[in-house]
Amino acid sequence: MKRILITGLALLGLMQLSAQNTPKDSSSYKSTKLKIEEINLVSSFYQQDGNNSSVTGGIGTEKLTDISNTIDVKLFKYDKAGIKHNWDIEVGIDHYSSASSDMIDLQANSSASSADNRFYPSVTYTCENEDKGKSLSFGLSSSMEYDYQSFGGTIGYSKQTNNKNGEFIAKFQTYLDQVKMISPIELRGTAKSSGTEARNTFAGSIGYSQIVNKNFQLLFLVDIIQQSGYLSLPFHRVYFTDGSVHQENLPDSRFKIPISVRGSYFLGDNVILRGYYRYYTDNWNLTAHTLDLEVPVKISPFMSISPFYRYYSQQGTKYFKGFEDHTVASEYFTSNYDLSTFNSNFFGAGVKFTPLNGVFGIKHLNTLEIRYGHYNRTTALTSNIISLNLKYK
User: Fold this and answer.
1) pLDDT tens, residue by residue, 121-151
2) Maximum CA extent, the chain
3) What DSSP character marks residue 199?
4) Distance CA 177, CA 199 (A)
5) What is the pTM of this model?
6) pLDDT number for residue 241
7) Which of 123, 273, 330, 339 places its Cα 20 to 30 Å from the Cα of 51?
């Protein structure tokens, strides 16, 4: 938490300087110079525990901690034709420690795999015609850590209906990944334990949002996702009924279809009901249902609280079995409990402050939000997360 607070306070000087250069009344002004529209800093601390580690074949500690910091800067300008050009630049850095990953080498008291850093920058450009309600976007992203590298690209398009109450949304994404082949120490020499393997993901999304009336809004979304390449993780052990140990082996292709609907209903000026449902299925015979409800309540003109609850139910893949449950007859096998049958609950609340004179007296630093969530699932995995969001606008 100390790191979270230091990182947040370090940005205040930058935000204050930028605020001093902003015109006092710019509501009707369309700037042809590049301007800061919004800056978001999100810092979080995550901790989990459990006793079904995939690294040790479905048993053993799942202790993990993660400290995450991201900064998201949104810039914009208008050209002479009145077209809005947006740039969204985001940079994130995570530091995590994992007791289960440390067990890749069963004899090590502490190894390089016990902790790692992840660096993930991205940039998105959007060209928006506000009069016609059209936008076209392009994005690039990357994620880098010791044993995994990912490079992504995104193309998006949206078009509002003539009355501006509906909007059609389409997006295509691709991720080209490389997995470093780090095998459990006792399998090195018998399983592939050097070099890298490719993993590619192609995803298409189609959505439609509709303002039903002044109080009710809906969004429908369908995704189609195709993955190919090395979809296992090389350091996941699987123990068979005869006591022998093997490297996780999953098919080299996976086809996913999530379908979701999201709604917001405004109960007067102070309460919003936000609901979400998603159905998921894939060709590994994994199916899942997600139900989510969040109720932001305005306590005062400058403060609101948002309790939330999410229920998740999953029917696991046919390739999953626990410790020493697989047999030599299995073509594909995993003991990763993320692919098992389970139910989970995630609940907590967020508190948002929007002081009239700005957070810490900085007028354009207009929002401070703190959120806490607790997660538990029927495999006995539990986790807690606390996050802090500062918004400059």
Assistant:
1) 999 999 999 999 999 999 999 999 988 999 9
2) 75
3) E
4) 5
5) 0.88
6) 96
7) 330
Q: Residue with structure tokens 């994404």?
A: 173
Quick check: is 35 in a domain? no
Number of domains in the chain: 1
CA 190 to chain centre: 35
Tokens (6 digits) for 8: 């947040």
DSSP 3-state of 7 = helix
Q: Which two tokens stand for residue 30?
A: 């369309």
> What is the amino acid identity at position 308?
F
Token pair recorded at residue 369: 């939000």
What are the structure tokens assigned to 35, written together? Answer: 């301007």
What the block records as the tokens of 227 is 């993955």
CA–CA dist 59, 222 (Å, integer): 36
99 pLDDT more than 50: yes
Alpha-carbon Rg of the chain, whole angstroms? 24
Kindly report, residue by residue over 316-371, the tens digit of the pLDDT.
Answer: 999 999 999 999 999 999 999 999 999 999 999 999 999 988 888 888 899 999 99
Which domain range does residue 184 map to? 48-392
Neighbours of 366 (CB within 10 A): 19
**DSSP-based helix, strand, coil % in the chain, nearest 5:** 10, 60, 30
Q: Is residue 7 part of a domain?
A: no
pLDDT band at 113; cut points 50, 70, 90: low
Contact 365, 8 (CB under 8 A): no
Domain of 117, CATH number, reads 2.40.160
Note whether residue 36 is domain-resident.
no
DSSP state of 187: G
